[in-house]
Amino acid sequence: MPPPSLRDLVRFLNIFLPASLTLQHGFTIINDGSGASVNKLHGLKHWLNSSQSLSSLMMSLNTGHLQLLDIGAIYDALGVGEGLTDPLSVLPKPWPLLCTARLCCIFCTQNGAQLHTLRRREKLQEIWFLDADYQWTRAHLVVAHCIACKADFYPDKIVHRDLANTRVQMLEFDSKYIRISKHGVWVHRNLAIAQERSIVRFRAGWSNFALYLNEIIDSKTRKITSRQSQRLFLEHFARRLLRAHGKEASDFLCAPNPNSQDFAKHLRLILGENGGVIPGAMIHGCTECTHRKRYLSDLVEEGAQLDNQVGALAEIPPVENNDELTAGEPQNHNIPAALQNLPRQMETPPDGTPRGYVRMAVMDGKSVGHRIIFTLKTFVASYHAGDQSMNQTVQWACGTPIGWGKCYNSQSSPQVLEILNKIWSDFPTLR
Questions:
Q1: Which of 82, 347, 396, 399 has the lowest CB atom count within 10 Å?
Q2: Whole-angstrom distance between the N-terminal and C-terminal Cα of the chain?
């Protein structure tokens, strides 16, 4: 008889156990059986816990010493009834296993080929995991390790040494799992997407989203905190913003395991502290923000009543049922003198040229105070000087973001113009 192999064992399990059972469940049945039917499993269980060869097991099967042909006996030993359609419901549910999706080290390469496979660094770590079904569960965390460069691969990041031999952290953009606490708390990425939708659609903050999760989960033992909800927001949007700005994972390197403040500070250094632009937004176009260029003749054909006199606007209809607003107001509004010298709208499209398209962009701002205050003296000086900044966001009329900048102390025209020029500086043909 030729020497047995692992394939022989797999073939044996496939023959004598149902196809619906995983290999882990198969070994659970073998090792955790009880009652009279355990005697039928004793031979196989003894072989699994000893150094006997697979050939002796196969010989026992051939001679009939190990009778495992009756799968019903195994079900009886586990208390599985005939009407049960899902045998897995009576088995202990295995813990989820969180690990990196990579098999080889991305740093140890030669001619484009990866040289070293990853190994498990240490024993499995027990963590708390909030899964995609909004359920708290215990899980195992595996940290993969490269024995050559000593890099550690987590599900959501990679810790390695840079050229200065300093340990740094690099994010995994496509991670399914995100750590939100140093105390071993992880969540599925689907919850980060749900948080993003809540912020966009319902203007929900970090605390409100944490309260919402705790209410629908209704767990008496585990609660997600506002700080953990904030960390989930930072981790998810850091990846979204880096990709939107055309950054690679290797562009964002920071000290391992930073707190939320240091994490956000380093992200601002990468994306820009006083402004930024999303290159991909420049090629965006949709029916809500982009339309064919219209000329004066188009408006006339559509029945628009336009006043041809320079220095006057078309007649504006009065506001109905509101005498307080319309009383004493002229029906025609004069154009400021500074605008009268602007070029008039073209009557018709130039001959032999394409009509072209027009996109509408919107700029808006929100005033915020600087919160990094070191001493009371600095705070007083900052307060008296009115040291306020206004974050200006620029987006297409449909809401697609283009870029952003800061105006200090006031929303003055030179500062606004500087923001616009900076955003379109690398796209002169799209101005």
A1: 82
A2: 80
What is the average pLDDT value for the chain, to the nearest integer? 76
Give the helix/strand (H/E) hosting 394.
strand 388-396
Pair (351, 400) in one structural domain = no
Domain span holding position 155: 97-273
Q: Which two tokens stand for residue 328?
A: 């004493």
Position 171 scores a pLDDT of 96
Q: How far apart are CA 149 and CA 161, in angstroms?
A: 8
By DSSP bridging, strand 167-171 and strand 157-161 are antiparallel
- With respect to residue 430, please indicate whether it lies within any of the assigned structural domains: yes
Q: How many domains does the chain have?
A: 4
Tell whether 161 and 211 lie within a shared domain. Answer: yes
Type of residue found at 386: G
Q: Give the model's pLDDT for residue 57.
A: 45
Pick from 121-125, 167-171, 219-223 the range whose average pLDDT is largest: 167-171
Please say whether the dihedral angle defined by the alpha carbons of residues 196, 197, 200 and 204, taken in this order, is positive or negative. Answer: negative
Are 351 and 362 in a shared domain? no
User: Could you tell me the two tokens for 244?
Assistant: 């939107």
Do 225 and 340 reside in the same domain of the chain? Answer: no
Q: How far apart are CA 172 and CA 157, in angstroms?
A: 5
What pLDDT shows up at residue 36? 32
Q: What percent of the chain has pLDDT over 70?
A: 64
